[in-house]
From TrEMBL:
<dbReference type="InterPro" id="IPR018060">
    <property type="entry name" value="HTH_AraC"/>
</dbReference>
<dbReference type="GO" id="GO:0043565">
    <property type="term" value="F:sequence-specific DNA binding"/>
</dbReference>
<dbReference type="InterPro" id="IPR051552">
    <property type="entry name" value="HptR"/>
</dbReference>
<dbReference type="GO" id="GO:0003700">
    <property type="term" value="F:DNA-binding transcription factor activity"/>
</dbReference>
<dbReference type="GO" id="GO:0005737">
    <property type="term" value="C:cytoplasm"/>
</dbReference>
<dbReference type="InterPro" id="IPR001789">
    <property type="entry name" value="Sig_transdc_resp-reg_receiver"/>
</dbReference>
<keyword id="KW-0804">Transcription</keyword>
<dbReference type="Pfam" id="PF00072">
    <property type="entry name" value="Response_reg"/>
</dbReference>
<comment type="function">
    <text>May play the central regulatory role in sporulation. It may be an element of the effector pathway responsible for the activation of sporulation genes in response to nutritional stress. Spo0A may act in concert with spo0H (a sigma factor) to control the expression of some genes that are critical to the sporulation process.</text>
</comment>
<dbReference type="InterPro" id="IPR011006">
    <property type="entry name" value="CheY-like_superfamily"/>
</dbReference>
<keyword id="KW-0963">Cytoplasm</keyword>
<dbReference type="Pfam" id="PF12833">
    <property type="entry name" value="HTH_18"/>
</dbReference>
<keyword id="KW-0805">Transcription regulation</keyword>
<protein>
    <recommendedName>
        <fullName>Stage 0 sporulation protein A homolog</fullName>
    </recommendedName>
</protein>
<dbReference type="GO" id="GO:0000160">
    <property type="term" value="P:phosphorelay signal transduction system"/>
</dbReference>
<keyword id="KW-0238">DNA-binding</keyword>
<dbReference type="InterPro" id="IPR009057">
    <property type="entry name" value="Homeodomain-like_sf"/>
</dbReference>
Amino acid sequence: MVIYMYKIMFVDDDPLVIKRLKNILDWGSLGFEVTGWAKDGKEALTHMKEQSPHVVITDINMPNMNGLQFVEKAKLVCPHTQYILLTINDSFGCAQQALNMGVYHYLLKPVEKDKLKALIKELLSFFQTSEEQSQYVYTLENKAGLSEKMIRDKYLNWLVSGCQPLSEEQIAENFSFYKIPIQADKFGMISIHINNLDIQSTARQHFTALIDTIINCVENALCYYKNYAVFSDPAYRINILLGYNEQDSSVIPNGEVICQNLKDSLLFELNLPVTLFYSRRYTGYQNIYRCYYETKYLQKYTQGIMDMGIISYESFMSYTLPISIDFDKMRSTVLKYLRNNAFDELKTYVTDAVCGLPINVPSLEYCNIISIDFIMTGIMFMQENKTPLRDIFHKYYDPINEISELTTPAERAAFVINFYEIMLDYNRTHKISSGKSLVQKTMELIEQNTANPSLSVKWLAAQLYLNENYLSRQFHRETGNFLIKYIQEQKLQKAKYFLEQGYSNLQTVAQMSGFSDPLYFSKCFKKRYGIAPSKYICN
């Protein structure tokens, strides 16, 4: 029985299309109520103000106000409404313009019932996730009386699990909603382990009090910094999420300096010996979970590791492994097999890597590191395909913890292989195209890093663990555009936007658009738009 009905509205100048949309699905059984329809964007805006629909399906080509113009204005009226665009044009430029405006998806006319139904179900899942978060906050605040900090802890633990893929914009909005005081383009993680602490024999209330005391000490030690958040996880480790801004590197020093400060403060204030582990830095909110998973390499502690006191990801790897492991190559190979649905090759590769123990390498540390990295790579693949972990497995599934409980290489290899097999079966069943997902991820990386002067085909390929030529071919196959030209076009569009917003310093505009040389920027801008940027400002 459906308790709550979502509102849906249709916009199209063709009454036959409106009629088909009203009858194509049993909207009531899906949890939707058709609250209205309109023949053009102007009429639709009036309905929007009165009804505030959750979903709007609109045509692009309409009189008076086209679909893209309508969405742009409608988002000011109803910012949380999700839009699906209908078009007869399958051009890449049209689709990209729509997606850049925040449109949820677009469909080709005539609308296919199965595709529309699948899209509506995706939206339902999205709404339910958002509602779960809102309801969760309401319950915590009004029924359980928990503090804002505890709510933030819950959200951050949910985020770092990697269970639910969200866009950069969604995560940034959630940070604002949950009052997490971080605005950054790069992130890192510090994990604090309390030495010689027996969790099993320590009373829960005493342990909780100790954690609170440690967090207070940590926050006092970091009082001169900003762009950080402290939270504890289910394993009773204190974690510090650090935000770094490229243009303001003085705000937070490097991880080792902060770790030394924290180590000294905890020892001096609480007489508490700790071991601190800090991750590498990753770009973008979507990669926060990768920072956290790097700290999980330390789930199996040894006395030698404890004696190090402060450990970076790189120093941990060099200490625990007497041989060098090319993780980039390993991830690239696994992702290649996953993207190509090559399960037999993947199975052989995982078995050889986990069970083929090199000589003079400690089996426990090697298996732990390799198997966890395989799981991380699988989660990266799911994030790339916008697939929540809980959709494939169950809500509280934690593959890192489960695989860490296994003791033999054969058990761990079998776990990883089964993990991958379930993912690939899910993709086949739901007809998820890895090629399209890869291109979409590439576009997201470009959009998020337009100002980065290192942005290039080579840089993108490194982020995605791909060969440059393969990425370029895949991008061209899916979009019809050359990747290198697409990058340039996005930079120039960003520059044009800044000029239209009133920025007059060409050097600043060039830097904000990813051009290190203002003269080269001016040359490219004039070639693209037929006018020099200096004259474009005047016009």
